[in-house]
Fold:
Amino acid sequence: MLPAARSGSPSAMENRHPSPQALRAPRVSFVSLGCPKALVDSERIITRLRAEGYELVRSHSGADLAVVNTCGFLDSAQAESLAAIGQALNENGKVIVTGCMGAEPEKITARYPGVLAITGPQQYESVVAAVHRALPPRHDPFLDLLPPEGIKLTPRHYAYLKISEGCNNRCSFCIIPKLRGNLISRPAADVLREAERLIAAGVKELLVISQDTSAYGTDIDYAASAWNGREVRAKFLDLARALGELGAWVRLHYVYPYPHVDEVVPLMAEGKVLPYLDIPFQHAAPAVLRRMKRPAAQEKTLQRIARWREICPDLTIRSTFIVGFPGESEEDFRCLLDWLDAAELDRVGCFRYEPVAGALANELAAAVPDTVKEERWHRFMGHQQAISARRLKRMVGTRQQVIIDEVHTGARSRSDTAGAGATVAKGRTRGDAPQIDGSVHVASRRPLRRGEIATVRIERADEYDLHGTVVGF
Ligand code: SF4
Structure:
Protein backbone atom coordinates (compact mmCIF):
# COMPACT_ATOMS: atom_id res chain seq x y z
CA MET A 1 0.00 0.00 0.00
CA LEU A 2 1.30 3.47 -0.86
CA PRO A 3 1.41 6.02 1.96
CA ALA A 4 -1.03 8.94 1.89
CA ALA A 5 0.61 12.02 0.36
CA ARG A 6 1.75 14.48 2.97
CA SER A 7 0.42 17.93 2.17
CA GLY A 8 1.19 21.31 3.60
CA SER A 9 4.65 20.54 4.91
CA PRO A 10 7.36 22.93 3.70
CA SER A 11 9.18 20.23 1.77
CA ALA A 12 6.06 19.11 -0.06
CA MET A 13 5.30 22.73 -0.97
CA GLU A 14 8.82 23.38 -2.20
CA ASN A 15 8.76 20.28 -4.36
CA ARG A 16 5.41 20.95 -6.00
CA HIS A 17 7.06 21.98 -9.27
CA PRO A 18 10.35 20.17 -9.34
CA SER A 19 12.59 20.44 -12.37
CA PRO A 20 12.41 17.57 -14.92
CA GLN A 21 15.95 16.59 -13.80
CA ALA A 22 14.82 16.28 -10.19
CA LEU A 23 11.89 14.12 -11.24
CA ARG A 24 14.01 11.43 -12.75
CA ALA A 25 16.30 9.02 -10.98
CA PRO A 26 20.03 9.83 -10.91
CA ARG A 27 21.70 7.89 -13.71
CA VAL A 28 24.88 5.87 -13.44
CA SER A 29 26.76 4.04 -16.19
CA PHE A 30 28.85 1.07 -15.09
CA VAL A 31 31.79 -0.72 -16.70
CA SER A 32 32.79 -4.08 -15.23
CA LEU A 33 36.19 -5.45 -16.26
CA GLY A 34 38.06 -8.55 -15.14
CA CYS A 35 37.19 -11.98 -13.84
CA PRO A 36 33.88 -13.44 -12.58
CA LYS A 37 34.88 -12.44 -9.05
CA ALA A 38 35.03 -8.81 -10.14
CA LEU A 39 31.67 -9.31 -11.85
CA VAL A 40 30.17 -10.41 -8.54
CA ASP A 41 31.59 -7.26 -6.90
CA SER A 42 29.97 -5.20 -9.66
CA GLU A 43 26.65 -6.92 -9.10
CA ARG A 44 26.79 -6.09 -5.41
CA ILE A 45 27.54 -2.42 -6.08
CA ILE A 46 24.81 -2.20 -8.72
CA THR A 47 22.31 -3.99 -6.51
CA ARG A 48 22.97 -1.49 -3.76
CA LEU A 49 22.73 1.51 -6.11
CA ARG A 50 19.49 0.24 -7.64
CA ALA A 51 18.07 -0.33 -4.16
CA GLU A 52 18.78 3.32 -3.44
CA GLY A 53 16.93 4.52 -6.52
CA TYR A 54 19.78 5.01 -9.01
CA GLU A 55 19.05 4.13 -12.61
CA LEU A 56 21.63 2.13 -14.58
CA VAL A 57 22.15 3.33 -18.16
CA ARG A 58 24.18 1.83 -20.98
CA SER A 59 26.06 4.86 -22.29
CA HIS A 60 28.38 7.14 -20.35
CA SER A 61 27.00 10.12 -22.26
CA GLY A 62 23.47 9.42 -21.02
CA ALA A 63 24.61 9.12 -17.39
CA ASP A 64 25.14 11.66 -14.61
CA LEU A 65 28.15 9.70 -13.38
CA ALA A 66 30.27 6.72 -14.51
CA VAL A 67 31.73 3.94 -12.35
CA VAL A 68 34.58 1.77 -13.69
CA ASN A 69 35.34 -1.52 -11.89
CA THR A 70 38.91 -2.26 -12.94
CA CYS A 71 41.09 -5.36 -13.20
CA GLY A 72 44.73 -5.14 -12.21
CA PHE A 73 45.83 -8.76 -12.53
CA LEU A 74 48.03 -8.48 -15.63
CA ASP A 75 49.71 -5.47 -17.22
CA SER A 76 47.44 -5.91 -20.25
CA ALA A 77 44.37 -5.84 -17.95
CA GLN A 78 45.69 -2.66 -16.31
CA ALA A 79 46.11 -1.07 -19.75
CA GLU A 80 42.52 -2.04 -20.61
CA SER A 81 41.32 -0.58 -17.30
CA LEU A 82 43.15 2.71 -17.89
CA ALA A 83 41.66 2.91 -21.40
CA ALA A 84 38.16 2.34 -19.96
CA ILE A 85 38.70 5.13 -17.40
CA GLY A 86 39.90 7.47 -20.19
CA GLN A 87 36.84 6.68 -22.28
CA ALA A 88 34.47 7.30 -19.35
CA LEU A 89 36.19 10.64 -18.64
CA ASN A 90 35.88 11.70 -22.29
CA GLU A 91 32.25 10.71 -22.61
CA ASN A 92 31.02 11.73 -19.19
CA GLY A 93 33.62 13.62 -17.17
CA LYS A 94 32.48 12.41 -13.71
CA VAL A 95 34.19 9.09 -13.01
CA ILE A 96 34.62 6.88 -9.92
CA VAL A 97 37.12 4.03 -10.13
CA THR A 98 37.01 0.84 -8.05
CA GLY A 99 38.32 -2.75 -8.20
CA CYS A 100 41.78 -4.30 -8.21
CA MET A 101 43.55 -1.30 -9.74
CA GLY A 102 42.15 0.78 -6.91
CA ALA A 103 44.77 -0.90 -4.70
CA GLU A 104 47.39 1.16 -6.57
CA PRO A 105 45.64 4.54 -6.91
CA GLU A 106 48.82 6.39 -7.93
CA LYS A 107 48.83 4.53 -11.27
CA ILE A 108 45.39 5.98 -11.99
CA THR A 109 45.90 9.53 -10.70
CA ALA A 110 49.22 9.84 -12.56
CA ARG A 111 47.32 9.45 -15.81
CA TYR A 112 43.90 10.81 -14.85
CA PRO A 113 44.11 13.32 -12.00
CA GLY A 114 40.47 14.28 -12.65
CA VAL A 115 38.80 11.06 -11.40
CA LEU A 116 36.42 11.83 -8.54
CA ALA A 117 37.31 8.92 -6.26
CA ILE A 118 39.29 5.66 -6.24
CA THR A 119 38.43 2.71 -4.01
CA GLY A 120 39.98 -0.75 -3.75
CA PRO A 121 38.55 -4.23 -4.36
CA GLN A 122 35.52 -5.28 -2.26
CA GLN A 123 35.14 -1.81 -0.82
CA TYR A 124 31.45 -1.72 -1.67
CA GLU A 125 30.64 0.78 1.05
CA SER A 126 33.35 3.20 -0.11
CA VAL A 127 32.22 3.06 -3.75
CA VAL A 128 28.62 3.68 -2.76
CA ALA A 129 29.66 6.52 -0.42
CA ALA A 130 31.66 8.09 -3.26
CA VAL A 131 28.60 7.86 -5.55
CA HIS A 132 26.48 9.51 -2.83
CA ARG A 133 28.93 12.38 -2.55
CA ALA A 134 29.11 13.00 -6.29
CA LEU A 135 25.46 12.26 -7.09
CA PRO A 136 23.09 12.16 -4.10
CA PRO A 137 20.36 9.48 -4.31
CA ARG A 138 16.73 10.35 -4.94
CA HIS A 139 15.32 7.57 -2.88
CA ASP A 140 11.70 6.53 -3.06
CA PRO A 141 11.27 3.12 -1.43
CA PHE A 142 7.85 2.72 -3.02
CA LEU A 143 9.16 3.16 -6.55
CA ASP A 144 12.59 1.62 -6.23
CA LEU A 145 11.66 -1.90 -5.30
CA LEU A 146 14.56 -4.24 -5.73
CA PRO A 147 14.04 -7.77 -6.97
CA PRO A 148 14.96 -10.00 -4.00
CA GLU A 149 17.78 -11.73 -5.94
CA GLY A 150 19.55 -8.40 -6.56
CA ILE A 151 20.65 -7.19 -9.96
CA LYS A 152 22.51 -9.76 -12.06
CA LEU A 153 24.88 -8.88 -14.87
CA THR A 154 24.68 -12.48 -16.10
CA PRO A 155 21.57 -13.81 -17.95
CA ARG A 156 18.74 -14.62 -15.60
CA HIS A 157 19.19 -18.40 -15.74
CA TYR A 158 22.71 -18.56 -14.35
CA ALA A 159 24.49 -16.66 -11.61
CA TYR A 160 27.88 -16.57 -9.97
CA LEU A 161 27.92 -17.44 -6.29
CA LYS A 162 30.96 -16.08 -4.49
CA ILE A 163 31.79 -18.11 -1.39
CA SER A 164 34.91 -16.30 -0.16
CA GLU A 165 37.23 -13.38 -0.77
CA GLY A 166 41.03 -13.33 -0.89
CA CYS A 167 43.52 -16.18 -0.91
CA ASN A 168 46.01 -17.82 1.47
CA ASN A 169 48.22 -19.24 -1.30
CA ARG A 170 51.22 -17.33 -2.56
CA CYS A 171 51.66 -18.38 -6.19
CA SER A 172 54.71 -16.47 -7.33
CA PHE A 173 53.10 -15.08 -10.49
CA CYS A 174 50.04 -13.71 -8.72
CA ILE A 175 49.44 -10.44 -6.89
CA ILE A 176 45.83 -11.19 -5.96
CA PRO A 177 46.64 -11.90 -2.28
CA LYS A 178 48.37 -8.49 -2.18
CA LEU A 179 45.38 -6.83 -3.76
CA ARG A 180 42.58 -8.76 -2.06
CA GLY A 181 44.17 -10.00 1.15
CA ASN A 182 43.97 -13.38 2.87
CA LEU A 183 41.05 -15.80 2.63
CA ILE A 184 37.79 -14.67 4.22
CA SER A 185 35.04 -17.29 3.87
CA ARG A 186 31.34 -16.50 4.05
CA PRO A 187 29.32 -18.58 6.54
CA ALA A 188 27.71 -21.55 4.76
CA ALA A 189 24.19 -20.43 5.74
CA ASP A 190 24.81 -17.03 4.16
CA VAL A 191 25.91 -18.64 0.88
CA LEU A 192 22.98 -21.07 0.93
CA ARG A 193 20.42 -18.34 1.57
CA GLU A 194 21.80 -16.35 -1.38
CA ALA A 195 21.60 -19.51 -3.52
CA GLU A 196 17.96 -20.04 -2.48
CA ARG A 197 17.06 -16.44 -3.36
CA LEU A 198 18.70 -16.79 -6.77
CA ILE A 199 16.87 -20.03 -7.51
CA ALA A 200 13.55 -18.55 -6.37
CA ALA A 201 14.18 -15.74 -8.87
CA GLY A 202 14.60 -18.16 -11.78
CA VAL A 203 18.31 -19.05 -11.71
CA LYS A 204 18.88 -22.61 -12.96
CA GLU A 205 22.64 -22.82 -12.68
CA LEU A 206 24.93 -21.67 -9.87
CA LEU A 207 28.58 -21.07 -10.68
CA VAL A 208 30.52 -21.34 -7.44
CA ILE A 209 33.53 -19.04 -7.48
CA SER A 210 36.28 -17.72 -5.20
CA GLN A 211 40.05 -17.41 -5.56
CA ASP A 212 40.46 -20.93 -4.17
CA THR A 213 37.18 -22.80 -3.80
CA SER A 214 38.65 -25.92 -2.19
CA ALA A 215 40.14 -23.82 0.65
CA TYR A 216 36.65 -22.70 1.64
CA GLY A 217 36.21 -22.47 5.41
CA THR A 218 39.83 -23.12 6.41
CA ASP A 219 40.08 -19.57 7.80
CA ILE A 220 37.04 -19.98 10.08
CA ASP A 221 37.76 -23.53 11.26
CA TYR A 222 34.91 -24.82 9.11
CA ALA A 223 32.45 -23.14 11.49
CA ALA A 224 28.88 -24.44 11.24
CA SER A 225 25.93 -22.09 10.76
CA ALA A 226 22.20 -22.70 10.94
CA TRP A 227 20.33 -23.18 7.69
CA ASN A 228 16.79 -24.53 7.36
CA GLY A 229 16.81 -26.02 10.86
CA ARG A 230 20.16 -27.76 10.64
CA GLU A 231 23.83 -26.94 11.00
CA VAL A 232 25.99 -26.75 7.86
CA ARG A 233 29.76 -26.57 8.17
CA ALA A 234 31.75 -24.10 6.07
CA LYS A 235 33.51 -26.99 4.33
CA PHE A 236 33.94 -27.55 0.60
CA LEU A 237 32.20 -30.95 0.64
CA ASP A 238 29.38 -29.96 3.02
CA LEU A 239 28.62 -26.79 1.09
CA ALA A 240 28.67 -28.62 -2.25
CA ARG A 241 26.29 -31.25 -0.85
CA ALA A 242 23.86 -28.65 0.56
CA LEU A 243 23.92 -26.62 -2.67
CA GLY A 244 23.25 -29.84 -4.56
CA GLU A 245 19.96 -30.24 -2.64
CA LEU A 246 18.52 -27.02 -4.04
CA GLY A 247 17.54 -28.43 -7.44
CA ALA A 248 19.76 -26.21 -9.61
CA TRP A 249 22.88 -27.09 -11.55
CA VAL A 250 25.93 -26.44 -9.35
CA ARG A 251 29.26 -25.91 -11.08
CA LEU A 252 32.55 -25.70 -9.16
CA HIS A 253 35.19 -23.28 -10.37
CA TYR A 254 38.77 -22.52 -9.30
CA VAL A 255 39.35 -25.68 -7.33
CA TYR A 256 42.94 -26.11 -6.14
CA PRO A 257 44.05 -29.76 -6.47
CA TYR A 258 44.08 -30.60 -2.72
CA PRO A 259 43.53 -34.28 -1.77
CA HIS A 260 40.11 -33.55 -0.24
CA VAL A 261 38.81 -32.62 -3.71
CA ASP A 262 38.51 -36.39 -4.22
CA GLU A 263 35.57 -36.41 -1.80
CA VAL A 264 33.37 -34.28 -4.02
CA VAL A 265 33.64 -36.57 -7.07
CA PRO A 266 31.12 -39.15 -5.72
CA LEU A 267 28.59 -36.28 -5.37
CA MET A 268 29.13 -35.65 -9.08
CA ALA A 269 28.61 -39.32 -9.89
CA GLU A 270 25.32 -39.20 -7.94
CA GLY A 271 24.17 -36.17 -9.95
CA LYS A 272 24.10 -33.86 -6.90
CA VAL A 273 26.53 -31.36 -8.41
CA LEU A 274 27.61 -31.09 -12.05
CA PRO A 275 30.34 -33.51 -13.14
CA TYR A 276 32.67 -30.62 -13.82
CA LEU A 277 35.89 -29.50 -12.18
CA ASP A 278 37.68 -26.29 -13.08
CA ILE A 279 41.22 -26.79 -11.74
CA PRO A 280 43.89 -24.28 -12.77
CA PHE A 281 46.91 -26.65 -12.94
CA GLN A 282 49.09 -23.88 -14.51
CA HIS A 283 51.96 -26.24 -15.47
CA ALA A 284 53.20 -29.81 -15.16
CA ALA A 285 57.01 -29.63 -15.04
CA PRO A 286 58.08 -30.03 -11.37
CA ALA A 287 60.79 -27.34 -11.60
CA VAL A 288 58.34 -24.78 -13.02
CA LEU A 289 55.65 -25.67 -10.49
CA ARG A 290 58.16 -25.23 -7.68
CA ARG A 291 59.08 -21.77 -8.95
CA MET A 292 55.37 -21.01 -9.27
CA LYS A 293 54.98 -22.14 -5.63
CA ARG A 294 52.24 -24.58 -6.64
CA PRO A 295 51.94 -28.26 -5.62
CA ALA A 296 54.40 -30.25 -7.75
CA ALA A 297 53.08 -33.81 -7.59
CA GLN A 298 51.81 -34.10 -11.14
CA GLU A 299 52.38 -37.88 -11.34
CA LYS A 300 50.06 -38.33 -8.39
CA THR A 301 47.61 -35.89 -9.95
CA LEU A 302 47.46 -38.10 -13.05
CA GLN A 303 46.56 -41.06 -10.86
CA ARG A 304 43.89 -39.02 -9.13
CA ILE A 305 42.39 -37.85 -12.43
CA ALA A 306 42.19 -41.50 -13.55
CA ARG A 307 40.49 -42.42 -10.26
CA TRP A 308 38.02 -39.51 -10.56
CA ARG A 309 37.06 -40.72 -14.02
CA GLU A 310 36.57 -44.26 -12.75
CA ILE A 311 34.16 -42.94 -10.10
CA CYS A 312 32.47 -40.45 -12.43
CA PRO A 313 32.99 -41.34 -16.12
CA ASP A 314 31.09 -38.21 -17.29
CA LEU A 315 33.49 -35.88 -15.49
CA THR A 316 34.64 -32.87 -17.52
CA ILE A 317 37.93 -31.34 -16.38
CA ARG A 318 38.76 -27.79 -17.41
CA SER A 319 42.07 -26.16 -16.65
CA THR A 320 44.31 -23.21 -17.45
CA PHE A 321 48.06 -23.16 -18.00
CA ILE A 322 50.83 -20.59 -18.31
CA VAL A 323 53.56 -20.99 -20.91
CA GLY A 324 56.81 -19.01 -20.98
CA PHE A 325 57.09 -18.78 -17.18
CA PRO A 326 60.56 -17.44 -16.16
CA GLY A 327 63.14 -20.20 -16.52
CA GLU A 328 60.83 -22.56 -18.46
CA SER A 329 63.17 -24.69 -20.58
CA GLU A 330 62.28 -26.56 -23.76
CA GLU A 331 62.45 -29.72 -21.67
CA ASP A 332 59.98 -28.30 -19.12
CA PHE A 333 57.66 -27.33 -21.95
CA ARG A 334 57.82 -30.82 -23.49
CA CYS A 335 57.07 -32.27 -20.07
CA LEU A 336 53.92 -30.13 -20.06
CA LEU A 337 52.85 -31.43 -23.49
CA ASP A 338 53.48 -35.03 -22.40
CA TRP A 339 51.46 -34.44 -19.26
CA LEU A 340 48.57 -33.08 -21.36
CA ASP A 341 48.67 -36.27 -23.44
CA ALA A 342 48.45 -38.37 -20.30
CA ALA A 343 45.82 -36.24 -18.53
CA GLU A 344 43.49 -35.89 -21.55
CA LEU A 345 41.77 -32.82 -20.11
CA ASP A 346 38.53 -31.82 -21.77
CA ARG A 347 38.75 -28.03 -21.88
CA VAL A 348 41.94 -26.02 -21.59
CA GLY A 349 42.91 -22.35 -21.68
CA CYS A 350 46.47 -21.10 -22.02
CA PHE A 351 48.13 -17.78 -21.18
CA ARG A 352 51.52 -16.49 -22.23
CA TYR A 353 53.35 -15.46 -19.03
CA GLU A 354 53.17 -11.72 -18.38
CA PRO A 355 55.54 -10.14 -15.86
CA VAL A 356 52.99 -8.51 -13.57
CA ALA A 357 54.58 -5.65 -11.62
CA GLY A 358 55.10 -6.73 -8.00
CA ALA A 359 55.00 -10.49 -8.69
CA LEU A 360 57.83 -12.51 -7.12
CA ALA A 361 58.09 -14.70 -10.25
CA ASN A 362 59.87 -11.97 -12.24
CA GLU A 363 62.96 -12.29 -10.02
CA LEU A 364 63.13 -16.08 -9.83
CA ALA A 365 64.73 -16.93 -13.17
CA ALA A 366 65.53 -15.52 -16.60
CA ALA A 367 62.57 -14.31 -18.64
CA VAL A 368 61.60 -16.41 -21.66
CA PRO A 369 61.87 -14.31 -24.87
CA ASP A 370 58.52 -13.21 -26.33
CA THR A 371 59.14 -15.06 -29.60
CA VAL A 372 59.67 -18.32 -27.69
CA LYS A 373 56.55 -17.71 -25.58
CA GLU A 374 54.55 -17.14 -28.74
CA GLU A 375 55.90 -20.26 -30.41
CA ARG A 376 55.18 -22.39 -27.31
CA TRP A 377 51.69 -20.96 -26.99
CA HIS A 378 50.88 -22.03 -30.58
CA ARG A 379 52.37 -25.48 -30.02
CA PHE A 380 50.44 -25.86 -26.80
CA MET A 381 47.12 -24.83 -28.38
CA GLY A 382 47.59 -27.10 -31.40
CA HIS A 383 48.49 -30.01 -29.15
CA GLN A 384 45.55 -29.57 -26.79
CA GLN A 385 43.10 -28.87 -29.60
CA ALA A 386 43.57 -32.39 -30.89
CA ILE A 387 43.00 -33.82 -27.39
CA SER A 388 39.88 -31.68 -26.76
CA ALA A 389 38.46 -32.59 -30.19
CA ARG A 390 38.99 -36.29 -29.42
CA ARG A 391 37.22 -35.93 -26.08
CA LEU A 392 34.30 -34.08 -27.68
CA LYS A 393 33.89 -36.68 -30.40
CA ARG A 394 33.16 -39.29 -27.75
CA MET A 395 29.90 -37.48 -27.10
CA VAL A 396 28.53 -38.01 -30.61
CA GLY A 397 25.59 -40.42 -30.43
CA THR A 398 24.95 -39.75 -26.71
CA ARG A 399 22.00 -37.90 -25.16
CA GLN A 400 22.93 -34.87 -23.12
CA GLN A 401 21.07 -32.47 -20.93
CA VAL A 402 21.52 -29.01 -22.43
CA ILE A 403 20.71 -25.68 -20.79
CA ILE A 404 19.53 -23.17 -23.39
CA ASP A 405 21.44 -19.84 -23.42
CA GLU A 406 20.26 -18.24 -26.68
CA VAL A 407 17.27 -18.82 -28.91
CA HIS A 408 17.14 -17.81 -32.57
CA THR A 409 13.50 -18.13 -33.50
CA GLY A 410 12.52 -18.28 -37.17
CA ALA A 411 15.85 -19.76 -38.23
CA ARG A 412 15.97 -23.15 -39.96
CA SER A 413 17.97 -25.93 -38.44
CA ARG A 414 21.40 -26.63 -39.92
CA SER A 415 20.45 -30.00 -41.39
CA ASP A 416 16.72 -29.53 -41.04
CA THR A 417 16.70 -32.86 -39.19
CA ALA A 418 13.93 -31.62 -36.93
CA GLY A 419 11.64 -30.69 -39.80
CA ALA A 420 10.13 -27.44 -41.05
CA GLY A 421 10.19 -24.49 -38.71
CA ALA A 422 12.87 -25.98 -36.47
CA THR A 423 14.28 -23.57 -33.91
CA VAL A 424 18.00 -23.15 -33.72
CA ALA A 425 19.27 -22.41 -30.25
CA LYS A 426 22.57 -22.38 -28.48
CA GLY A 427 23.10 -24.11 -25.17
CA ARG A 428 25.60 -25.93 -23.01
CA THR A 429 25.95 -29.46 -21.68
CA ARG A 430 26.65 -30.12 -18.01
CA GLY A 431 30.33 -30.12 -19.02
CA ASP A 432 30.40 -26.55 -20.39
CA ALA A 433 30.60 -23.41 -18.30
CA PRO A 434 29.22 -20.19 -19.79
CA GLN A 435 31.63 -17.91 -21.64
CA ILE A 436 34.70 -20.11 -21.28
CA ASP A 437 33.74 -23.52 -22.70
CA GLY A 438 32.00 -24.71 -25.87
CA SER A 439 28.36 -24.65 -26.95
CA VAL A 440 25.77 -27.05 -28.31
CA HIS A 441 23.96 -25.85 -31.45
CA VAL A 442 20.47 -27.21 -31.04
CA ALA A 443 17.66 -27.95 -33.52
CA SER A 444 14.16 -28.40 -32.16
CA ARG A 445 10.60 -28.77 -33.43
CA ARG A 446 9.20 -27.08 -30.39
CA PRO A 447 10.22 -23.52 -29.50
CA LEU A 448 12.81 -23.33 -26.77
CA ARG A 449 13.11 -20.85 -23.95
CA ARG A 450 16.25 -19.39 -22.41
CA GLY A 451 17.14 -21.24 -19.23
CA GLU A 452 15.18 -24.34 -20.20
CA ILE A 453 16.95 -27.71 -19.88
CA ALA A 454 16.34 -30.05 -22.83
CA THR A 455 17.58 -33.54 -23.69
CA VAL A 456 19.58 -33.33 -26.92
CA ARG A 457 20.87 -36.16 -29.09
CA ILE A 458 24.40 -35.18 -30.14
CA GLU A 459 24.91 -35.70 -33.87
CA ARG A 460 28.17 -33.99 -34.67
CA ALA A 461 31.24 -32.47 -33.03
CA ASP A 462 33.71 -29.94 -34.32
CA GLU A 463 36.84 -28.60 -32.62
CA TYR A 464 35.03 -26.76 -29.81
CA ASP A 465 31.27 -27.21 -30.22
CA LEU A 466 28.61 -29.91 -30.51
CA HIS A 467 25.53 -30.06 -32.75
CA GLY A 468 22.33 -31.98 -32.03
CA THR A 469 18.56 -32.22 -31.94
CA VAL A 470 16.16 -32.04 -29.03
CA VAL A 471 14.64 -35.43 -28.25
CA GLY A 472 12.98 -34.65 -24.92
CA PHE A 473 12.45 -32.17 -22.15
S1 SF4 B 1 45.58 -19.67 -5.78
FE1 SF4 B 1 47.47 -18.69 -6.50
S2 SF4 B 1 46.86 -17.84 -8.49
FE2 SF4 B 1 44.97 -18.21 -7.39
S3 SF4 B 1 44.53 -16.27 -6.32
FE3 SF4 B 1 45.63 -17.57 -4.89
S4 SF4 B 1 47.77 -16.92 -5.11
FE4 SF4 B 1 46.67 -16.20 -6.93
In short: The CA atoms of residues 30 and 84 lie 11 Å apart.
